[in-house]
Amino acid sequence: MPLAALDRIPQVAVPFMNSDHSEFARRVSDLAEAVEGRVAGKVPLETIFHSFDGLLEHTREHFAREEAAMQTAGFPPFAVHKAEHDRVIEEMASEAKHFRASADTARLCKYVTQTIPSWLVSHIQSMDYMTASFIAARG
Description:
Blueprint: H1 15-39, H2 45-73, H3 78-102, H4 105-138
């Protein structure tokens, strides 16, 4: 699923989750734009580092908000959803570390324009949809 998929993010029953998803998509798009600018020789590496760090920070905060809402609502498969969040944070941190060490723009471009958008849409349509529906029903 290409980066354009971020223009059509599925909505869920909890407004703060939709807001976090939109912000995540904006940050992914900004990072992709920085990577493309780097390929064209117009963007310094530091700009990409800063953009990726911001995405990672936002993602940690986003996941923490979801996890707190799941715990408050008593969401039964909390551990499964949290494990997916932990996996994604670990993967993103690993990709950021790899990029800092290698400046491999081709790999980062693929990760940012293909892997992340595909994961996000799939995650929202499955885990987040069920989570948000449960939270909304609990009031």
